[in-house]
C-alpha cells in the first residue's frame, strides 16, 4: 500500500476515494457508454486539479475503450468518427493551453461549468440541425478537443453531432466508443508535447485503470435493454448534481 501511495503521490484517504470514484465511473461507462471522464472530473476535482486529472483520465478512457471497442468498431459510423478526431486534434492544444494558463481554482470552476452546461443541454435533448454538415463535423470535433483539454469531456460534445445526424441509438453509442478510442490514441501526442503526461499522470492512470475496467465489466453485466432508455437521463442528472456540488465546494473551500 505504501508503494502505491508513493507511486501515485496521494494520501491514503485520497487513494481510497479515487479507487471508489473510478470504479463507480467505470460502472456508469459500462452500461451507458459515456460519462467516465465527466464523472471522475466532477467528483475528483476537489482532490486533484484538472491539469493532473486529464493525463490520468487518458489512461482510464483508453482502458475502458479497449474493453468496449469490439462493438464500437463494428457498428460505428467510421467516417464520422475519423472527422471528429481530426477536428479534436485542432481543439486539444487550445483547451490544454487554457487549463495550463488559468489559476487552479479557476480551471476547476471552468471544468465543472463545462460539465454542467453540456449535461443540461443533453438532458434537454438540445438538437442542433446545422451541425449535420461537413463544417459541423469538423467544428464539433474542434469544440470536443477544446472540451477535452479543459475537462476531458469531448465525448459529451460529440453527442450533439450524433444527435443532429439523427443516428440510431446503437450507432450513436458505438460511434462515441470509437471516437473516444481514436481520440485517446491521437491525443497522447498533444499531452506529451505540452508536458502534461508526466510520471504522476502515467502512474495514477495505470493504477486506477484496474478498478475502472472492473467497473466497466460490471456495468456491461448490469446493462438491460429494457431499461436502456433510462440510463442516459439518470446518469446526466447525477452528473449535474455532482458537478454543481463540486462547484459549490470549490467556491467556498
UniProtKB/TrEMBL annotation:
Q: Is the keyword Transmembrane assigned to this protein? A: yes
Q: Which GO terms describe its cellular component?
A: plasma membrane
Q: Pfam families, from UniProt?
A: TauE
- Positions of transmembrane segments: 15-32, 38-60, 81-100, 106-124, 136-164, 176-194, 206-223, 229-248
- Highest taxon, organism lineage: Bacteria
User: What InterPro entries does this protein map onto?
Assistant: TM_pro_TauE-like, TSUP
Its topology with respect to the membrane? Answer: Multi-pass membrane protein
Q: Write out the entry's keywords from A to Z.
A: Cell membrane, Membrane, Transmembrane, Transmembrane helix, Transport
Record localization: Cell membrane
Task: Give the protein family.
Answer: Belongs to the 4-toluene sulfonate uptake permease (TSUP) (TC 2.A.102) family.
The protein's name in its UniProt record: Probable membrane transporter protein
Amino acid at each position: 500500500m505504501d508503494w502505491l501511495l508513493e507511486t501515485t503521490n496521494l494520501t491514503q484517504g485520497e487513494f481510497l476515494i479515487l479507487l471508489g470514484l473510478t470504479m463507480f465511473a467505470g460502472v456508469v461507462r459500462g452500461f451507458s457508454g459515456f460519462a467516465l471522464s465527466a464523472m471522475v472530473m466532477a467528483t475528483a476535482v476537489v482532490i486533484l486539479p484538472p491539469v493532473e486529472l486529464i493525463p490520468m483520465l487518458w489512461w482510464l478512457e483508453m482502458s475502458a475503450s479497449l474493453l468496449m471497442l469490439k462493438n464500437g468498431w463494428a457498428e460505428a459510423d467510421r467516417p464520422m468518427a475519423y472527422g471528429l478526431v481530426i477536428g479534436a486534434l485542432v481543439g486539444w492544444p487550445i483547451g490544454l493551453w487554457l487549463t495550463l494558463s488559468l489559476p487552479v481554482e479557476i480551471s476547476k470552476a471552468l471544468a465543472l461549468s463545462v460539465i454542467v452546461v453540456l449535461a443540461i443541454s443533453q438532458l434537454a435533448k438540445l438538437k442542433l440541425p446545422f451541425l449535420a454538415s461537413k463544417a459541423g463535423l469538423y467544428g464539433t470535433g474542434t469544440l470536443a478537443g477544446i472540451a477535452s483539454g479543459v475537462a476531458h469531456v469531448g465525448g459529451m460534445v460529440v453527442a450533439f453531432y450524433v444527435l443532429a445526424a439523427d443516428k440510431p441509438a446503437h450507432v450513436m453509442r458505438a460511434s462515441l466508443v470509437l471516437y473516444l478510442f481514436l481520440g485517446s490514441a491521437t491525443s497522447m501526442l498533444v499531452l506529451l508535447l505540452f508536458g502534461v503526461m508526466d510520471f504522476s499522470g502515467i502512474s495514477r492512470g495505470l493504477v486506477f485503470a484496474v478498478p475502472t475496467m472492473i467497473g466497466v465489466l460490471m456495468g456491461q453485466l448490469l446493462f438491460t435493454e429494457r431499461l436502456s432508455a433510462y440510463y442516459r437521463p439518470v446518469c446526466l442528472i447525477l452528473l449535474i448534481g455532482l458537478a454543481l456540488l463540486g462547484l459549490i465546494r470549490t467556491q467556498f473551500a
